[in-house]
Hints:
alpha/beta; 15 helices
Amino acid sequence: xxxxxxxxxxxxxxxxxxxxxxxxxxxxxxxxxxxxxxxxxxxxxxxxxxxxxxxxxxxxxxxxxxxxxxxxxxxxxxxxxxxxxxxxxxxxxxxxxxxxxxxxxxxxxxxxxxxxxxxxxxxxxxxxxxxxxxxxxxxxxxxxxxxxxxxxxxxxxxxxxxxxxxxxxxxxxxxxxxxxxxxxxxxxxxxxxxxxxxxxxxxxxxxxxxxxxxxxxxxxxxxxxxxxxxxxxxxxxxxxxxxxxxxxxxxxxxxxxxxxxxxxxxxxxxxxxxxxxxxxxxxxxxxxxxxxxxxxxxxxxxxxxxxxxxxxxxxxxxxxxxxxxxxxxxxxxxxxxxxxxxxxxxxxxxxxxxxxxxxxxxxxxxxxxxxx
Length: 372
């Protein structure tokens, strides 16, 4: 007889590449939220390196495999002496084998799609063996992580990705937006001074465009051309990781990693957010922008894959020309829509919390049934 759902949630462990204190990416945001929800410790790759006396290596060929092995090595010892009731891990970080405890694997890295996109760019600095890792090695790694675990996709887009790889998806749990933080409002009094923004200079431009992401070909894509060819817009580009150098164009400001709670001022100051990435598992920054009623120009990927159309959103093909047309449309006609109501109804914290509590209960049953 199959075991009934458990209601009490006990000791748990959340595994990730970094912690939110180290890097403020979308993956780190969900990891932090889950650790708070379940009162879990966060086991990060740098911490594992320290605990296992292993040299920390941020990014290099084979880095995903390396960090999986390092964390798996530590987990093997950890579960012997301090066995958690369940573990939540990312498909790219938590080791290749499931430890002998209920394990939930989050799938939010469409490696194969990313590799195929990078291959089309034909950048000379993208090594062929790195492309092979994205297209072949990392998906095989994901198949192993999903083999004996309870698997959660962060979007229908990722569920389809898993299906193509033959990985079972047990539940789809989209991200939620912190709508108490990300809401329409006035910017803080010290906004311009704090971020070294020239208010008088910016006021001479027709609109303010916002871009947020990593300095990576996937995320940045053709942003440089959009900036140059739309010189009547003042662009603010916020990078998740520190970048060196200054932009050559006068109509752009580069800002390095800032606390996530500071982003709300930028969403409310900007006239629109542009997301040039062709492959997104979800697209959290777009969700936050829409929660502030700030329009978004993006490609049909991540959670936008579920919409034929969406108020306050201009969906584009993967082309510079299409993005330029969308920007022109926005310049000629102001887009005013109550996107916050739609977003907070569909992607609210209470629904996300309930889904994750149910997922943990189901994962415990899934694990116990496998061991009968």
